[in-house]
Amino acid sequence: MDTTNETQERIVLTALKLFLSQGIKKTTMAEVAEQAGITRVTAYRYFGDKKSLIRAAFMRPVTVFKQVQEAIAREQEHNIETCLDTIGLGLAALPQGDLPTRLDELNRLFPDIADEFHTTRLSVVKNIFDRLFATAREQDLLRDGVRQEIIEVVFMEAVTNALENPRLVAMNLSSSDIYNSVKNIFLYGILKELKS
């Protein structure tokens, strides 16, 4: 990663951490810059205004899913567990916080960004599900009687909504803990025993 990308990523992750911990409205560009170890001018050079930074910060978790989607598209064969583990590791590397509250705040302040977040995430997760389910079917990994449309609804609800569930967040579970539990249910609840 070059210096420009490293600086931009540091700004985005710092902003996401602050937005999740203290709120979008309360977080200033100056505060993000200070916490990221750069000047306010540098922050504005990368992100022309606070709204652009908010968009980049909240779309960062979606990038984790997009990277896996792109990797699946490049490869002919997909190791289901590896793909799902990659998502878990990507989510674990992100700052943690009260995502449900902050998404509510995002929806109030910037409904266009909230809509983009939800729409893009849903689309990407569905694409990943479709490809991995097809792989499981091709490799004869599915348990007998598993219906794709039912599993898809359950999987989509679990992956997209579990990370925003206030009860789970209140239990101080990280996004990666929640995601890994959903992953294990998917892998070991509907698939035949995986051969190592």
Brief overview, please?
75% of the residues lie in helices and 0% in strands. The protein has 196 residues and is an all-alpha fold.
Would you mind describing this structure in some detail?
By secondary structure, the chain is mostly helical. It contains 10 helices and no strands. It has helices spanning about 5-20, 30-35, 40-45, 50-75, 80-90, 100-110, 110-140, 150-160, 165-170, 175-190. The model has no long low-confidence stretch (mean pLDDT about 90).
C-alpha-based Rg, rounded: 18 Å
Fraction in helix: over 70%
Secondary-structure element pattern, one letter each: HHHHHHHHHH
Distance between the termini: 33 Å
Number of helices: 10
Report the portion of residues in β strands. under 5%
Low-confidence stretches: none
What's the number of extended β-strand segments? 0
Q: What is the average per-residue confidence, as pLDDT, rounded to a whole number?
A: 88
What best-fitting shape do the alpha-carbon axes yield?
Answer: elongated
Major sheet details: none
Oligomer: single chain
Structural class: mainly alpha
